[in-house]
Description:
By secondary structure, the protein is mainly α. It has two domains: 13-282, no CATH class; 283-353, no CATH class. Helices cover 73% and strands 0% of the residues.
Amino acid sequence: MVMSFHYDLIHFGWSGVQLFFVLSGFLITRILWKEKFKEESLFSRFKRFWIRRSLRIFPLYYGFLLFLGITFLAFHFPFYYRTFIPWLATYTINYTRLMPGWLVNPLFTHLWSLSIEEQFYLIFPFFILLCPPRAIRIVMPVMILLGPCFRYLLGVFYLQRAPEMQVAGDAVYWNTLSHLDAFCMGGLIPVFTLEKKVSKPSVLLGVAFSIALVAGLVNFLMLGPSDGHSYLTDLGYNHAEMRDYQHVWCYTLLNLFFASFILMLISEQARHQFPWIRRLLESNWMVSVGKVSYGMYIFHWAIMVYVVERIFPVHGGRLRMLFFIPYVLVVYLFSRLSFRYFESYFIKLKDRA
Length: 353
């Protein structure tokens, strides 16, 4: 989804990041919720979680930054590396959007989402492992309700400081507080064991999908196309848009839809529904893509700009659409090599944690 967005093919593809946050909230909360009730010391549980996460995330991330550092020392490229490396190294690049002279770059602009993810990994274990279950079951729904309030207040704050609305919209979207409801909405599933308690998850999914679809259509009719994109490519959800208070409500609706989709997939009540979706997601090639998706996310934009578009400089029309699949294959193969000859060594160490 994100690759299709950066490729300027499907504008709605940016919401893949939103799905990523909701899915992370579900997976990490499920892991921590199981750890919470183990007969072990808190130190052991914290250590195991952070070591396993670090071995999966840090090697490729910091290896990529090291490679960029070498190219900077050798060729003085990218020239803005020295400015951003302190933020990248500390996983705080998501707070740089209002910096003077900020530039979009395909090497690490998209790593803002990994900064939010890492901040979530740092803080959320304290919340899950230290708080009583009753408090967790109260706080998480409250955080979901407060999510739109956080984004509204952040919008007011950034609009007073940003040179234009688009910059303020980016700054709101890049702020960690803007996605607490995404993480918590995914986390509600294991905390409340919704996969067992929701009797008709497909109905919930249908309601969430209908609400999101209607809201997007109304938004599109009120605001019109954004950046020349049609309704079919953005569904009325424009990236980092603030008009019509879209930054307040749209992420919540998308979070609800994605959380409902996850619930439908894992629900005991819907195990025999939508079998074609299950077959697709459990197919060997989708599982293979899933294994290397982290690398694909890190590498895809740089490969698009510095490899694909240099060899095939097509910037619009049907011909560009034809090049999308070969582009995905190139990114996949490169990421698979990274996974096999670099990442897998560290992943094996996770079993010793």
